[in-house]
Specification:
This protein folds into three domains: 203 residues, Rossmann fold, CATH 3.40.50.2020; 285 residues, EreA-like (biosynthetic domain) (EreA/ChaN-like  fold), CATH 3.40.1660.10; 107 residues. It is 45% helix and 16% strand. It has 27 helices and 20 strands. A hairpin with an 8-residue loop joins strand 14 and strand 15.
């Protein structure tokens, strides 16, 4: 059986449909050069020309070809010993030449042969037109990617002899090391993606067919400037989005829009692009209230630990010992507590308790609050034993004996258990966790026969705790073996818990079936198949729900351009109120900001015209519980295709930090404003 980690080793990280789309993505990152009379775009023939044409057309700049020919080793022509560029510039790797014992005469013969081919290609490509004059110009050199960078280095060396004012390199894909190397040699480098590990340029493309001489000639003959340009009359992506955007004050769409979007869906997943934005939480709560009151949704399932969320569930149903929402949320002690212990969730929990009280008074179904996550290894063990102590003391004794394995390994530290078990420093408790789950499941029917509906709810709670222990044990061992594997285990657990919850609620629902709204981060809610992480074998809850429930599921994402956010600077750190940097060029956030709208919904499902601008690959920002603005690009952005990632996106251009119930002094003080220097 092939695991996700194995898939990651062998699957290329495909980002772009083809070279033309890659060019459009690059153009979004080069907007500072648009409409400048001193700019000229040179595409490295042949593969760089389709990319360069899209860049030149978007920047409204002239385009020409720059031909570079590889100098292949005698008898092994695929192995480059150097390169020959337009203008006759030859760049040779002296170490390789010496190592292969290539004589000066052999090198001259290779250069002459490739030189004749270079001249032939230049003549064929330009159709008699003279080469562009780049003296004193800002030249943007474009290729379809860089590997070693030998061809691009030859192009730069040759180009310098023509004395341009500035040289810029722009490529869709390249190793980070190569991009950094060129950054020290020229004026500007734009690498749209830097896959790790980098294996080959073609791995970043779904369609990487060879470009023909005829295609190059045709593109060079197609103007990118002036009145005859192919695309000057087309609307920009921002204009297209603006024309179909639906105003959503404070992020809350009109009821008729929600009705059209949701329809008869059973599961609605509502995301957030940060775990600390007030407007995301507030709008999500408002939409959820509408789903409960108008569409009969019977549960909120959150990216929260099962035991802590179930304490809230008891409170909103008028059960348990908590006297107010603040107490009901006090179980959320694990970092990051502010995710659920905040003013918005507190107010929603109070509202839900009041709503359920009114429902009970009229004999109508109540709405519960549940958790989907699996971090509660030791807490869930404790809850299993508490339940069994009440209903089956002998089974409780067996559970204590099995779960004692974890105490021997790591006391109450789940990560310490995972580390010791993964590296052989302590025992693995996998067998004990499985045995306890099987034991519980074997006796579940007998437990369910006691005390009616309430007992069945508590049985379901305890049984899910046993399942959580089982899945968390696997997760904590896997987290030291690879990020993709542990991520997938977590999202599969969420999907499994969600389906178990649906089945449980369906037992108490007449037609129609139970309906659930999910609260989680965009990175879980969005469909992984529309993002670059899919090529690594990574799954998401949204993808799994779509595959299982098809048109009965809706995925809604949130985004913001700037403002403040509640986040920590490191794992386990205190909550801080941090300034969010303006979104990067080429990001979906930057596109939505460019529409000029303050808060709106855009959906290709509602407005098919939105599909075109939202189907372009763009960067998407994801701020979790940690925000590292100094490494913004690396830490918080990945490539997405929004039209396929979500059924709808709600953009709120300026947002503020979520207020914790216990704000720290650093949160109250906020962050000192900065000038936002560029970060990788």
């Amino acid at each position: 059986m092939t695991g996700a980690a194995d898939v990651a080793l062998h699957s290329p990280r495909r980002v772009f449909r083809d070279r033309r789309e890659a060019g459009r993505v690059l153009a979004n990152l080069l907007t500072a050069y648009r409409d400048r009379r001193d700019v000229i775009v040179l595409g490295l023939a042949r593969g760089g020309i389709p990319v360069a044409w899209e860049v030149a057309a978007a920047l409204r700049a002239p385009l020409d070809a720059f031909v570079v020919r590889k100098l292949g080793a005698p008898g092994h022509e695929e192995f480059a010993v150097g390169a020959l560029a337009s203008g006759g510039r030859v760049v040779v790797n002296d170490d390789v030449v010496r190592g292969l014992r290539i004589t000066p005469q052999e090198l001259r013969d290779i250069a002459e042969r490739e030189g004749r081919e270079l001249v032939r290609r230049e003549a064929a490509y330009r159709g008699g037109r003279p080469p562009a004059d780049v003296t004193g110009k800002t030249v943007i050199l474009v290729d379809d990617g860089l590997a070693t960078g030998a061809s691009m280095f030859a192009a730069v060396q040759a180009l310098r002899e023509a004395e341009p004012a500035h040289i810029v390199i722009a490529v869709p894909a390249a190793p980070e090391s190569t991009c950094r190397e060129f950054a020290g040699l020229i004026d500007d480098v734009v690498c749209a993606s830097m896959p790790t590990p980098f294996l080959a340029v073609g791995d970043s493309f779904w369609d990487f067919r060879q470009v023909s001489d005829e295609e190059v000639a045709q593109l060079l003959a197609t103007p990118t400037t002036g009145v005859s340009m192919t695309r000057p009359v087309e609307r920009t992506a921002a204009e297209m989005v603006r024309s179909v955007a639906i105003d959503a004050p404070a992020g809350i769409p009109p009821r008729e829009t929600l009705e059209e979007l949701i329809g008869d869906a059973r599961i609605v997943l509502i995301g957030e692009s940060s775990h600390g934005t007030h407007e995301f939480y507030e709008a999500r709560a408002a939409i959820t209230k509408w789903l409960i009151e108008e569409k009969g949704f019977g549960a909120v399932a959150a990216e929260a630990d099962w035991p802590d969320a179930y304490r809230v569930n008891r409170y909103v149903r008028g059960l348990g010992e908590d006297e107010n929402a603040d107490e009901a949320l006090s179980g959320f002690e694990r970092f990051p507590a502010w995710m659920w212990r905040n003013t918005v969730v507190r107010d929603f929990v109070d509202w839900l308790r009041t709503h359920n009280r009114e429902q009970r008074s009229t004999g109508q179904p109540q709405t519960g609050f549940y958790g989907l996550d699996l971090y509660s290894l030791h807490r869930s063990m404790h809850e299993v034993i508490i339940y069994l102590d009440k209903i089956d003391p002998k089974a409780a004794a067996r559970a204590r004996a099995r779960y004692a394995c974890f105490d021997h390994a790591s006391a109450d530290d789940a990560q310490a258990y995972g580390f010791s078990a993964a590296f052989g420093a302590g025992p693995s408790c996998e067998r004990e966790a499985i045995e306890q789950l099987v034991d519980f499941q074997r006796n579940a029917l007998a437990y369910a026969r006691r005390d009616g509906l309430l007992a069945e709810d508590e049985l379901f709670y305890a049984q899910q705790n046993a399942q959580t222990v089982r899945n968390a044990e696997v997760y904590y061992r896997a987290m030291f073996g690879g990020r993709v594997t542990s991520w997938n285990l977590r999202d599969k657990h969420m999907a499994q818990t969600l389906e178990a919850l649906l089945t449980h609620l369906d037992r108490h629902h007449d037609e129609p079936s139970a309906r659930i709204v999910v609260w989680a981060h965009n990175s879980h809610v969005g469909d992984a198949r529309a993002t670059e992480v899919w090529a690594d074998g990574q799954l998401t809850l949204g993808q799994l729900v779509r595959q299982r429930f098809d048109d009965e599921a809706r995925l809604i994402g949130f985004s913001t351009y700037g403002g403040t956010v509640t986040a920590a600077s490191e794992w386990g750190g205190v909550a801080e109120r941090k300034a969010i940097r303006p979104a990067l060029n080429g990001s979906i956030e930057e596109l939505l900001h460019a529409t000029g709208g303050k808060a709106f919904l855009v959906s290709a499902r509602i407005s098919p015209e939105a599909a075109e601008p939202l189907s372009v690959v763009r960067l998407g920002r994801a701020i979790g519980v940690i925000y590292q603005p100094t490494t913004e690009r690396q830490s918080h952005y990945f490539h997405v295709r929004p039209a396929d990632q979500f059924d709808a996106m709600i953009h709120i251009d300026r947002t503020r930090a979520l207020e914790p119930l216990e704000p720290t002094s650093r949160w109250i003080a906020g962050e000192t404003p900065e000038t936002f220097p560029s970060g990788l």
